[in-house]
Amino acid sequence: MQIRWNFKLKPTKSQKIQMSQWLTTLRKHRNYALRERNIGFDTNNQDIDTSVVYAWGSWCDTESRTEYGSCCPLTCPVIKHGVVPRDLGKALKTSKGVVKWDSASGVQMKVTTQLRHEIPAFGNINSDVLQRNIAKLDAAFTNFWKHGRGYPRYLRALKSFEYKPKQVKIGSIKDSYAIFYLPGIGNVKMHNSRDLKLVKDVRTCTVKTSGGYWFISMLVEISDDLPQEKPVNEVKSVVGIDVGVNKLVAVSDGSFVENVRITTNSRTARRLAIRQRAASRKLKGSKNKAKAFKKITRTKHKLALRREGYNWQAASKIVKTADAIGREDLNIKNMVKRAKPKHDGKGGYKKNGASRKTGLNKVILDCGWGDLFNKIAWLAVKAGKPVIAVNPKHSSQECPQCGHVDKNNRSGEKFLCTNCGHTEHADTKASITIAKRVGLVFPKNKRTLPADCGKVTPVKTSTPKRVESRNHACESPCTQLSLFDLTAYTVVDSRKSKRYGKNS
Ligand SMILES: [Zn+2]
């Protein structure tokens, strides 16, 4: 199976400098390529000083995001002149004996190859890394047209570069570290936190920087396979989870995962605010300003790590609880939208609780619910357990006993049904409701008769096992029950049977 592993790199000082220089050049390269496509789209190449004669095509509309087939210079599968290189020969490509205009990315990749001979900064970079840079820009355009993402932006800082499959090689493996060969950079030491001997094949690798540290994210092919998901009839228990702000998770077995508020607890929030303020007051462009901001990024990086670790622990605890996990299907993006302004009708605004909402949004984002759900999903897949997302509507207002839905059922952490008087911790109750909505019904283990029902319970009087009775006529396991046949069966008074058990 393919799996993504992250490792922390231990590059030397010169390797760090080299990788930072690569990122600077790659950022310029990407921004240049984007600019070239934008100009092509805006001007239709009419003010570019070339004598190209081209056919008109219908342009794409960036407002409505309608793409007209092969005619857009931004994504430009074939003809259009989104990119017109100085050497026109580079704009053409031959496929199946027909000479055509190449796609924008095709042209830009060819120009990039030329740049590698002309400019030393480009020449130092691995050619495949440069090509992946263009491919990533293409992916950004595809995301814009097809997946509703934002229009590709000019980057102020690039944080990562990518290698094509099979380029990064794993060198010697020691207990605590290993050595990777990164083409163009050389042998880089890394903290070995996995069993690298399992790796059969290395696919795409992304080298990235965060908080002044360097990491590599590797897509690897390993020999292990994931277990099959349990079929529904083998699932014996289900756990519902309710994520919240006061308690991070309420589990339907009554336990909780506390919310430690990694970045929004008063101490950290204050510290971050002080450092941010101090950094913003330093002289613009000075070394001190750069140092101050470096300190902030490092703090934020550490906080993110802490949140990640905490969420892994919480996810592991939840997945171990039961055979199936039910969670709310939340739209977190909509939940953290800012408060809508309220007009007072005189050109002004009424109070709308915007600052309160902003504060709540910060806390919600600090919880990392989406991240927690992802971690639960992954751990559940590894354990072969299903995760079911259920509709969270009224999950905190619905009474689990009578099904009565009322806003007034809940007050703070207490749940008190206005209809039947059922009371419970509000978050636990919500998690139980979620577990119910998963819709799995389990047969009860013991069928017990209610007390004093007056029915007859068959009890065998004799014939121990393995001893053959000679008188087969006496053995009557399937005779009709009769209240008066006291030799074979005894009437068991339920009150007695409680006290003395079966033998009474
Ligand atoms: Zn009720």
Task: Give a short summary of the structure.
The protein is built from 11 helices and 19 strands.
Lay out the secondary structure.
Blueprint: E1 2-10, H1 13-43, E2 92-95, E3 98-101, H2 104-118, H3 120-123, H4 127-146, E4 160-163, E5 169-173, E6 177-182, E7 186-191, E8 199-210, E9 213-222, E10 238-243, E11 247-251, E12 256-258, H5 266-280, H6 287-321, E13 324-328, H7 332-335, E14 342-343, E15 349-350, H8 354-367, H9 369-383, E16 387-390, E17 410-411, E18 414-416, E19 423-425, H10 426-437, H11 494-500
Parallel strand pairs: 10-13, 13-16
Antiparallel strand pairs: 1-7, 1-9, 2-3, 4-8, 5-6, 6-7, 8-9, 10-11, 11-12, 14-15, 17-18, 18-19
The protein binds zinc ion.
What features would you describe in this structure?
- It is a single chain.
- The chain is 34% helix and 19% strand.
- With 504 residues, it is an alpha+beta fold.
- Strand 2 and strand 3 form a beta hairpin.
- It is globular and about 80 Å long.
- Helix 1 crosses helix 4, helix 5 packs antiparallel against helix 6 and helix 6 packs across helix 9.
- A seven-stranded antiparallel beta sheet has the order 4-8-9-1-7-6-5. It has a five-stranded mixed beta sheet with strand order 12-11-10-13-16, with helices on both faces. Strands 17-18-19 form a three-stranded antiparallel beta sheet.
- It is built from eleven helices and 19 strands.
- The chain starts with a strand and ends with a helix.
- It binds zinc ion.
- Zinc ion binds next to loops.
